[in-house]
Amino acid sequence: MTDFVARLLYLLAAAAGRLPWPLQRRIADGLAWLSLRVGTRESDVTLRNLELAYPDLLPGQREAWRREVLRTTALQTLDTLRLWTRPHAENLQRIGEIHGEALFDDALAAGRGLIVAAPHFGNWELLNQWLAAKTPLAILYKPPESAIGEAFLRLVRADADADRITQVRAEGAGVRQLFKRLQAGGVVGILPDQQPKGGDGAFAPFFDVQALTMTLLGRLAGRSGAPVLFAWCERIGPGPSYALRIEPASPGIADPDPAVATAALNADVERIARRDPAQYQWTYKRFKARPPGSGEDNPYADLERG
Prior knowledge:
two-stranded antiparallel sheet; 12 helices; globular
């Protein structure tokens, strides 16, 4: 039954993904308007995050940014449905620019393993497909709470490159698998800006706000000696085109001191997010955990009560 429902969801996603691009843009505008009108969780969380990350914005500016974040998020969702249900080779034609590919090729040729840090900016699913076309890789992911959701995720991430993408659950056994892959000179992809479990992270500044940040990436880089590259697919122009960008991580990202490593990690993610705030995932409760002993309350507590 789980696989049947997952395949049914796949068919629905495929239908939505085949809508013409101009229609997708109009739907995204409508969904953003509805989200603001109804006061959805995503709308409220986005506003709270913008208040925390950009406290100097005037109220009118912040509202304009919120509308654009919601619109871009809706467009990203529709676009991802298309990417999930169309051949990867076809999807990759939508990458109109590639910057820093030589950095990636040189890291592969060095044979010391490679960690690709892919923040929640732009379209990370398209980035995954580009990486898989270049080399086999393992992707660390947080499994959905439902078995159907996980079955659907595995289904949509399969294609001609299915044997080149290994999806690794974010748990103890998965982390050991990543380390072995790096030791063998392989490539690992990590979303670095998800809030980890309390024992797996350290607090570091992110937009001048303390945020619980993963220490895993720094530990993997430090123990394996593998270089870290940041990569993202950024939407450009009015159409469904992307620029793929690859840049080296800050040197401190592999520091044995977790405070140094997480601060470097967050600084890199922040630098990318500031390129275009609308393309960053501000609908996520990034600052929910607060430093022990700080006396700070969960900034989303009033939204959760509502």
